[in-house]
Write a structure and sequence with these properties.
Elements (H helix, E strand, L loop, with lengths): L4 E6 L1 H18 L5 E7 L3 H8 L6 E9 L12 E2 L11 E9 L3 H12 L4 E10 L11 E6 L21 E4 L5
The protein binds xanthosine-5'-monophosphate (XMP).
Length: about 180
């Protein structure tokens, strides 16, 4: 697996330090409240597991299965909700966690759905935000790292379902794609 990595973009220890700071920001914004955290599967799995363990407080964790890449390296331009039901969010403050903000369509669609479902507030956090123009009007409230507009893998991010378990964020060799 490691042999397919072209370049390590964000090393494991750098991610860990940044997560400490992000967790602090989240704690300050939601003092003492039981919030609902919605983890977008599967990409945000690793990020959420590490961030949420830095929030030593009462919260409820839900997952939402959404797809926009369909296995390749380009966003398909359409967000599919793969679950039959949304988590119960009526009147609740919600924090949505995703791995990466790219075109913005995923976060926009999820935030809109949760607002329609009666959430009192929807905040969003991403490990990575690509430095590019968004296709829709959205930015995340908490951003781990800004990166260039290139396809990345690792720390939850995949290429065709693989490389999610790399402990860092990197780029893939052309011959591995
Ligand atoms: P949008 O375009 O909706 O994209 O903001 C968000 C979703 O697209 C996936 N994505 C990536 N996955 N490497 C990946 O492995 C990438 O560079 C990348 N860019 C976007 C990801 O699932 C994210 O939730």
């Amino acid at each position: 697996m490691e042999a397919d990595v072209e370049r390590v973009l964000i090393a494991e220890d750098v991610i860990e330090k940044r997560l400490d700071a992000m967790a602090k920001e989240v704690r300050q914004d939601f003092p003492g409240e039981v919030i609902v955290v919605i983890v977008l599967l599967k990409g945000a799995l690793v990020f959420a597991a590490d961030l949420l363990r830095r929030l030593p407080r009462m919260l409820e964790i839900e997952c939402l299965n959404v797809a926009s890449y369909h296995g390749g390296t380009e966003s398909a331009g359409k967000v599919d909700f793969l679950d039959r039901k949304l988590p119960e969010v009526k009147g609740r403050r919600v924090l949505v966690l995703d791995d990466i903000l790219d075109t913005g369509r995923t976060l926009r669609a999820v935030a809109d759905k949760l607002t329609e479902a009666g959430a009192a507030e929807v905040k969003t956090g991403v490990l990575l935000a690509k430095d590019r123009e968004r296709a829709v009007d959205v930015e995340a409230d908490y951003v781990g790292f800004e990166i260039g507009d290139e396809f990345v893998i690792g720390y939850g991010l995949d290429y065709q379902g693989r490389y999610r378990n790399l402990p860092y964020v990197g780029t893939l060799k052309r011959e591995a794609m």
